[in-house]
Amino acid sequence: MIAAFDDPRIELARDTVGAVRVLADPKLPPRLLRLADSRGREFFAKHHSERERYVREVHSYGEWVTYLNGHAPRMVARRDATCTLLLTSFPGASADTLAPGSPEEEQAHYEAGRVLGTLHHITVQPRTGAIGAELAQRLGSWITRADRADLISTAEQNLLRHSADVLANTLMDSAVCHLDYQPRNWLVGPSFGLCDFEHMRRDARIRDFARLEFRRWQAAPQLRKAFFAGYGTTLTDTEQRLLESFGAIEAVTSLVRGHEQDDLALSTHGRTVLARLT
Questions:
Q1: pLDDT tens digit string along 6-57?
Q2: pTM confidence score
Q3: CB atoms < 10 A from the CB of 207, how many?
Q4: What is the pLDDT of residue 26?
Q5: Distance separating alpha carbons of residues 222 and 271, to the nearest angstrom
């Protein structure tokens, strides 16, 4: 497969490692290219359309990915002018390809818990009110967007604002969080790896479980059990209630993004989570 030389991802790779060829991979999103250089070494070149996410991912690779102890690609080069990254290739396939209910799926959740537990343990800070207040403010802005788009009823808006009040008045641990922690961003192969760090930041530690709680574990509690076996601790009753409050963020962001992106599956997911909270 041949790509145009004016593609900023090709230019970055060529300027960094020399001549490259594009390896066809239809499973990749359009912003990613899989490349090989003249020595057969493989890389991924990534372009961000949003500078904020690019800056966050660059910061993550520079400051926090090292805490994952080799369970992630490395950033080889970057180009700020075009928001482009060149990353090493991490061997393995997305955990989303694993058969539901298989031992391999359960093992992936165990490894995911183990790796995330390491990151959280190294970066955790004791309970404060700052994170809760920030999350409540963020949730409030999403509620406003949903209300303006006429996506929620008055009763649903009141329910979501109650969740914001709970968050604002709760002390919680913070840690460096991936914040899109789900199988599509796990790599399974010779070892376990993570990818996509564009959302990574310090946040409520418990929030890193929200995508799994509301998108996977409801239908497969054995995966939750495997995950926390790897993580090293289970949730207390208080932490489980806090996780439920994060469902409000999951619901309203899915509704708004589903509406804005005309993504029926995402909108349906948001509606399902919202119904669970009522």
A1: 899 999 999 999 999 999 988 888 999 999 999 999 999 999 999 999 999 9
A2: 0.90
A3: 24
A4: 87
A5: 25
Cβ atoms of 187 and 145 within 8 Å: the answer is no
The structural domains of the chain, ordered by start, are 8-89 (3.30.200.20), 94-277 (3.90.1200.10)
At residue 1, does pLDDT exceed 50?
A: no
Confidence (pLDDT) at 2? 41
pLDDT of residue 232 exceeding 80, the answer is yes
Beta bridge partners of 77: 86
Q: Give the residue among 174, 83, 70 at the shortest CA–CA distance from 120.
A: 174
Check if the beta carbon of residue 157 is closer than 8 Å to that of residue 144.
Answer: no
Distance separating alpha carbons of residues 87 and 180, to the nearest angstrom: 19
For residues 51 and 57, give the distance between their C-alpha atoms in angstroms, rounded to a whole number.
Answer: 10
Q: What does the block give as tokens for 267? A: 């909108």
Which residue is it, tokens 């192969």?
Answer: 189
Closest Cα partner for 277 from 90, 184, 139?
Answer: 139
Cα-trace Rg, the chain: 20
